[in-house]
Design brief:
Blueprint lengths: L13 E4 L8 E11 L5 E9 L2 E9 L3 E8 L10 E4 L15 E10 L2 E9 L11 E7 L6 E2 L20 E9 L2 E8 L13 E6 L8 E4 L2 E4 L19 E6 L4 E9 L2 E7 L5 E9 L7 E4 L13 E3 L2 E5 L8 E10 L7 H8 L2 E5 L2 E7 L2 E5 L11 E4 L2 H6 L2 E5 L5 E4 L2 E6 L5 E4 L3 H5 L4 E3 L2 H5 L3 E5 L5
Parallel strand pairs: 3-20, 24-27, 26-28, 29-32, 31-33
Antiparallel strand pairs: 1-2, 2-23, 3-4, 4-5, 5-6, 7-8, 8-9, 9-10, 11-12, 12-13, 13-14, 14-15, 16-17, 17-18, 18-19, 20-22, 21-23, 22-23, 24-25, 25-26, 29-30, 30-31
Amino acid sequence: MQTYLVLKSLLLLFAFTFTNTAFSDKIYIDDDFKVIGHLGYDYAPSVMLENNKFKMYWCGESLGDQIFYSESDTYWKSWSKPRPVFRPGKTFSKNKAFDDFHVCDPSVVRARGKYYLYYGALPSVSAEDRCETKIGVAESLDGQNWVRINSGLPIVKPARKCPSSQYGAGQPSVVYLDGYFYMIYTDTSGFASKKSNGAGLYMIRSKSPTFVNREIRAPKGWVSASKGNGIRVTDYNLIAGFSVDMMYSDLIDSFVIAVNTNPNHTTLIFVDKNLSKSRPDMKINGTWRDGPGLIRKPNGHALPAASCDIIPVSLVRARGGKSPSTWDLYLTDAEIELSRPSCSTDQLQRAYSGFLITSQERPLAYVTSKGRIQLETRAPLHNSNYSFAYVDPETYDRFTYLGDINTSQKAISGRGLPSAFVTSKGYRIQYSCGGVISRNKSKALAVSSAQYHKYPLGGEIFCHDS
């Protein structure tokens, strides 16, 4: 079955309509249905669509909190058997570490040809209620086998000491955007967190996956957190809450933040790159027990849909009784219908970047942030990361045409430079692996750096084994 962006027809059960002088968007919500339930608890999911598979990471119980994984070709059924893919540090080392006891609350993104797993962790049983949760990061080439980076040390710690009954710093959600890693996270010790219960969600960004040289959002914009400007990382909280997930919608150039602030619904909050409110809040009905997981692209961006006026906001939430041992994962199918769709060609191309698109009486085309590349066969995408999407002909024709890659298409390579096809219109399409060139019955011509770069970059394609 082809994987379109919302894979089955939405059953319209309920709609919330918000009206003001600028917007009257609608959200359409389908029933919850169980997708994961195994012995012990399941909560805090991170979900992506990649290579036509829905891939989910979440916190589950197996001798303490561990991070589990499952995948499905069609997200409403046939999920693979859950299995742990990331365990507490004591599994790998006898040295005492900040994540020796629990690893939980995953957020997984793919950027620069690698997967990054962000997680909250505890060092021991005794630390569980002592405000000692910290955030760590690991990397992987395949999304299954992980290696801790940052020398195995936490990348975010509680801002200060807080009451022993509180949590600390954790529950991260990360998006890769414009060369930056953006993280929203909970810090109950934050200077702007509620004194009564520690509710406080903060946003930081960095060009490094380990968040060195991080920036924080201050009243006058993003500023360095390490230049002695008198602003502390947690002086300004974004939301008074806990445990969120977020994605970036290229169609509306806004972060979409899903937060559980009411036991009967999840609230969607929209902010722009400067974290200013960009649209009215919206609600997705349904009970929950812990943080939501939006279904995203591998880089943490919103999935595209068949046209410019739809933003898929499907999410997974833990549901069950008061006892965590009853918590299972349920998926709610949802989409926003924009009342004033006005996405530019640039926004459209960013939204569909990484997708192989089909349309009526149109050739297959791969979309990058620069435009569409029409393909004679799928050989140029062998072993690469892409998913399918159907678009209407009008949307297809809006993508900037970058040319064709046909069988035996011209290809180039250079010393220290990635192999690349040159399209029929002269654009350079770079690859992280060289085998695709020969599979397309092409032969790469060795050129100088100057000759290589005379072809404008039309996009980069990453292979599974990169």
